[in-house]
Amino acid sequence: MSATDRGPAAYAPAAGAAATCVFAVRRSGDPGALAGRTGHAGGGPLRLLPLAGSLWAVVQSVPAAEFTQEALRQRLADPLVLENCARSHHAVITAAAEDGPVVPLPLATLFTDERRAVDVLDQQRSHLVGVLDRLTGRAEWAVKVHIGRPAEARAPARSAPRAVGDRTGADAATGTGAGTGAGADADAGAAYLTRVRGRERDRRAWQDATLHVAQQVHDTAAALAVAAVRRTPHGPRITGPERHQVLNAAFLVDDARAEELATAVRALHGAFPGLDVHIDVSGPWVPYSFTEGRRP
Amino acid sequence: MTAPLDFPAESDPSTYHSPSTANLADILERILDKGIVIAGDIKIDLLDIELLTIRLRLFISSVETAKKAGIDWWETDPALSSRAAENALARENKELRAQLAELEAHDERPSGRARSKDTA
């Protein structure tokens, strides 16, 4: 690490000062698709900063006062500002990648000035070069699998029969309900428990089937990819209650094989009779998910 | 124009999804990812980031809805963004903040009363 006193805690910018926001590192010093583009609102034009070893950083001067830790915390708590920042960041990185491989940096990677940015990035040079080598001629492809959720699989059984007082279906299914039902209710209770167990069995069978679909799609794509990452599937807030996302994966794919992967994965659409399976392939993405630099 | 990624079967995998058509959740989970972290001078707390993501996830469906309605303010320079869209989204934002507060309160009292309204 550089022996500087200017750590995050000491950062209190003067009025009108600028901070340096770094979006990505790449090999090309030619602005190309970046020419005339803006990055974050209120900042200066995008520029290319020369680094050691023929690397270039895509940077923008931004108003320092708006990019302190505290200011960011407040501003990014506003979904509208957050979305603007997210889309601006993504747009810059996407444009920067039109002329060759880039190493994308996370949202709001900021330095107090250009000198600091160059110093820190130069220390990472061998790592950055390794990642660029690995990403050259490859792109990220996203594969998501959704399965239509049958009504009975949306929630475990909840309705309790009147005969067993305040025992809930969940209690009965897990055997935690105290046996309060007297003899007259025994048959109804037994029938009820059988029904609950049957519903639970169906729900588990459906879950197992969905896991199998996810694994099959994942393995099909992974066989054609250099690397794979599985992300947490999006919840019903994003997918809607009728669709259950069972796979949210990203694959690093040689450009020459991208079409093959897309075709192979989409061919699985009809491979699961009896299940309402939707397979969604998107790309090419800048390889955000594959920047760790490990050689395959 | 390609279809938003939210709607499979309509998206053609051989086309490039421009930033304006990418699902916000897909963008966020990538740009907040811890893939390569160059220690900058200004840091955002990871916990904050997680909270941001939750907020955004509450927000995504309404953004997609707005987009389908032809509000495309994020496809232009933010400085030129449509005031009408901002007002609509600000209203939506207020509702979502209320929902988020409710969810957070719900998390703090797991044994508390059931939520008063269905937020799905």
Automatic annotation (TrEMBL), chain A:
Transmembrane segments: none annotated. It is found in: Gas vesicle. The keyword rRNA-binding does not apply. The keyword Ligase does not apply. Coiled coil: none annotated. Residues 151-184 are annotated as: Disordered. GO terms for biological process: gas vesicle organization. GO terms for cellular component: gas vesicle. Residues 153-163 have a biased composition (Low complexity). Keywords: Gas vesicle. Pfam families: GvpL_GvpF. Belongs to the gas vesicle GvpF/GvpL family. PANTHER family: PROTEIN GVPL 2. This is Putative gas vesicle synthesis protein. It comes from Actinacidiphila reveromycinica.
TrEMBL record, chain B:
The keyword Coiled coil applies. One of its GO terms (molecular function) is structural molecule activity. One of its GO terms (cellular component) is vesicle membrane. It is found in: Gas vesicle. Residues 82-109 form a coiled coil. The keyword Cell cycle does not apply. Keywords: Coiled coil, Gas vesicle. It comes from the Bacteria. Belongs to the gas vesicle GvpA family. This is Putative gas vesicle synthesis protein.
